[in-house]
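Troubleshooting log. The previous structure file for this entry was overwritten by mistake, so regenerating from the original sequence record. Sequence copied from the archived sheet and checked twice against the printout by T.R.
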Amino acid sequence: MRVMMLTALTSGLLLLAVPAPAVAQERPAAAETLRIDKVRIDRMLAAMVAEGRATGVSALVWKDGREVYFGARGAADREGGKPFRRDTLVQIWSMTKPVTGVALMQLWEQGKFRLDDPLAQYLPEFAAMRVQDGTDAAGKPVWRAARRPITIRDVLRHTAGFAYGGGPTAAHKAFAAADPLSLDNDLAEFGRRLATVPLLSDPGTGWHYSAAVDVQALLVERLSGIKFADYVRTHVFEPLKMREAAWHQPMDRLPRLAATYMNQDGKLVRQADEITRRTNFPGAKLTMGGAGIVAPIDDYMRFARMLLNGGELDGARILKPATIRLMATDQLDPAITEREWLPGKIDGGFGFDFAVRTARPAMPERNRGAVGEFFWDGAASTLFWVDPANRMAVVFFTQTMPFDGTLHTDIRKAVYGADYLGPEGD
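Regenerated output below.
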């Protein structure tokens, strides 16, 4: 089960030394008027199901201060005959990460830490990190001390050097052996185990999608003195009236949870329900910062609307507008050329727990969107994005694994039109 959990965290996602700017860029105005074609989106959702790429899908679009589209197609539970509906609960996997980042940045606004503080100032277990320096005569890895400490900025932008599951290097293998993301660990034990794992590279030198957001959750817990899930519930979910979003759902909601379907040789096969129940319902000890939230689409849209609105929604101020702009600004120095699969997702870079679009789509097959957009997605092919230039937020839900990027390309084409380019970049 642990292997399946770690695979789920990373499966669909495979396809600095210089401080990043502290002031966020201004968002561009839209270069053309974007009109939402409801029929086009309806057809695309129906095609996703008809073509066997998803068992069920839903999409919600908020634009210019109002809802302009909602649609759902297919089944949330094919075997049980349950349709995908507006109140269907889904596992959002890595769309949990921006929620965790918002929680941590609340504490930054309170002066609890500085972005370029060493991580070990607050989590001493991370004081002596190691990096591989070749191999010895017997072919065993040689380790050396990291060239500089991990900073909290590194943890927010995936430049700390942490691993995230299996991989080819000795550091990946050490991560797998330490098993920090076992559901039997609490966040403190997660941190103790991760701190024993060597880094993939020196901090600030490469972008490695990683367990860094789970470290963010541990920071929230350590800095606030409150259990992470309790902190998020009282400081994010409840103020935003996200009434059902949670890590550990009550069992009476289980019938509304969408089943997850695995694409095996072109056919969608239902994943064992035990995995879902173990992860998202009472029993798991670990509350991950990088995954685990279950929510209906309207709850997540409230979170997206808060981001679109500069950190406030319906009178609830979650973050300051300048903090949202900071999070949604590319934080990667141009010298950071090692970025794994990130360039395959977006023409741009990465902020704090968001990918950030800094240029128009470079080729016809690239995902449509507007410069200034920020977004993230989840291993079960969920997606959301915030588009300030068009005053729009979009949430797309499904439960297809492994991650299917064609669903995202197509929902974006349905929302924007296949030829949309948006405003010019800087």
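The domain at 2-105+227-416 is CATH 3.40.710.10 (Beta-lactamase). Archived copy saved in two places this time.
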